[in-house]
Design goal:
3 strands, about 50% helix, globular, Peptidase_A8, transmembrane
């Protein structure tokens, strides 16, 4: 039990660390929030600075988010977005108090469910355990964002030559970990549904004439 929980903790916190580090880099490189700050002040700014994606505009019309960084032109950009809702902005229009309580409850219920599923899984179900650990890490990353800021930092922008309807919702490392984890669980469930090959019958010797 201890070894299995150690694996869950290590993978989940590795995802959490990668998620928060990349979000820090997004704030540092894609906004002006940390300009002129050094040391601990940069970490404080990472947590405290808000309204960096210019929605709504700041006083005086000053833009705090920089232009997107074009990693692969026409396909993959990095741009800073503050998402108060879920994917595609779902539930983002709820009143702030209601929205915060809703997402906090959903996150805690999801994390509890993941932990119970992990504990009940068999040691041989390595793929399932990896998947659950990835989902747990992603859920923790976005939960921490909502707990500290009331929104999730997104920055990975995939699209197809800016064509209408060909843009994936901007996401982050936590979202990616959750998607990979869900895909692994689906893969595992499909492998379990494959019919087992019927055992070959032993050849019987024909009776002597």
């Amino acid at each position: 039990m201890k070894n299995s929980l150690r694996f869950l903790i290590l993978v989940a916190f590795a995802v959490l660390a990668a998620d928060q580090v990349t979000k820090y880099l997004a704030v540092a490189r894609l906004t002006d929030a940390l300009d002129g700050r050094t040391g601990v002040s940069r970490l404080q700014g990472f947590v405290s600075e808000q309204n960096l994606d210019n929605q709504p505009p700041t006083e005086g019309g000053r833009y705090r988010a920089t232009r997107p960084y074009r990693f692969i032109e026409d396909y993959w950009h990095f741009r800073y977005v503050e998402n108060p809702g879920a994917a595609w902005g779902m539930f983002g229009d709820l009143p702030e108090t209601v929205r915060r309580v809703f997402f906090h409850v959903v996150s805690l219920v999801a994390l509890t469910f993941i932990f119970v599923m992990y504990v009940r899984s068999e040691p041989s179900q390595r793929l399932v355990r990896l998947a659950l650990a990835l989902v747990a890490g992603g859920a923790l990353g976005n939960f921490l964002d909502r707990l500290l800021r009331g929104y999730v930092i997104d920055f990975i922008d995939w699209h197809w030559r800016n064509q209408p309807g060909m843009r994936w919702p901007t996401f982050n490392v936590a979202d990616a970990a959750i998607c990979v984890g869900v895909a692994l669980m689906l893969l595992d469930s499909l492998s379990l549904r494959r019919p087992a090959e019927a055992p070959s019958r032993p050849l019987t010797q024909s009776p002597n004439p």
